[in-house]
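This protein record is not my work; I was only asked to verify it. Where you disagree with what is written, explain briefly why. This is what I was given:
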Amino acid sequence: MEIITTQTQRRSKTEMVLTNIFKLPPIPKVLLKASKILDAKAPKSKELVDVISKDQSLVTKILSIANSPLFGLQRKVTSMDFAILVLGFSELKKIISALSVIETFKNKTDKYLDQKEFWLHSFLTGSLSEKIAEDVGFSIKGEAFLAGFLHDMGIAVIHRFFHSHFVTIYELQENSDMNLLDAETEVLGMNHAEIGSFLAENWNFPTSLCDVIKNHHTANNSTNNFLLASVIHLADYLTKHFQIGQFEPDKNLTLDMEAMANMRIHTEEEFQPFISGYEAFLVEQSEAIRYLS
């Protein structure tokens, strides 16, 4: 009972700190405005160009991606209008989401968290989530990318705003068999999935998205979208399984077969054929992220 009380107190203290962090990043304005335009039934290119053009750093990176070998164009892309034509609205939303959040959470690499590794893992999980969502018939692919991309944002929050606790969590994992979630709960009274959900709520994201971020390790606890939570869990696991974009703090991550049942995967014999094409997809996407940095 004493341990439960202590963890409850730690959780309350963590929530209080999160509530009072005035520097907790707001949702990037360009992402908010661009997403609103891109979510319309008939997005207007001119409106999108007007919004994006206010952020020259974003323009430069989008043009760099449009000119990358990924698209193999003979002609150089020099305008946002042409970039939108080349990339398409869906791909553009993914790029804007990634670049905006990366910029917002820009932080220094240290021995406890490699920023490049973190963003590679986030981007690959988001991209693979979108691909899996499409394969299992989930209609809102863009939401799948965003949920996958943001699934570990709580880790970035802990590293930035609770750094001494992050070090303690790191050392707990190094010196014991404790997994990441248990180590975080031991130190902070809550884990990165819960903290990530707190951030998403702070950004006024849809309740379903907050719920998926909160339950990407525990998909069947999702109250709004256990299918998408299962998709994110699988994408997260596959970066480790294929060792492409795997994330060191997730080294003890195991596959939840109950979550796989939500996608009608019940046995190892069904699982292996289902994931067979995703390794090549991750390799291709890991090339794409080079142009986001």
